[in-house]
Amino acid sequence: MPTDNRHRYIAEVVVTLKPVVNDPQGLVVTQALHALGYPEVGATRVGKFISLDLEGAEESQVRARVEEMCRRLLRNEVIEDYRFQLRREEP
Known about the structure:
- This protein has helices at about 25-35, 60-75; strands spanning about 5-15, 50-55, 80-90.
- The protein has a three-stranded antiparallel β-sheet, with helices on one face.
- By secondary structure, it is an alpha+beta fold.
- It contains two helices and three strands, in the order E-H-E-H-E.
- The longest helix has 16 residues, at about 60-75.
């Protein structure tokens, strides 16, 4: 019986607005935290967290596919940046 050389990976993607883009949601969160008694909070930026459960043989190929997903769908290239961490899940 041939061994399956595919592995399970988890990609954790964080998408945030570019620093030059205004973040009205972040302003609302900052104001609300100040109103709740947290004056030490400075600027707040709000983003998205996306967890992807993936399968693949080579980590480099999986990483390239996640990059492609981020560029093509998960972020708006005009106003958003992204970063991700990839980890292999042990069976």
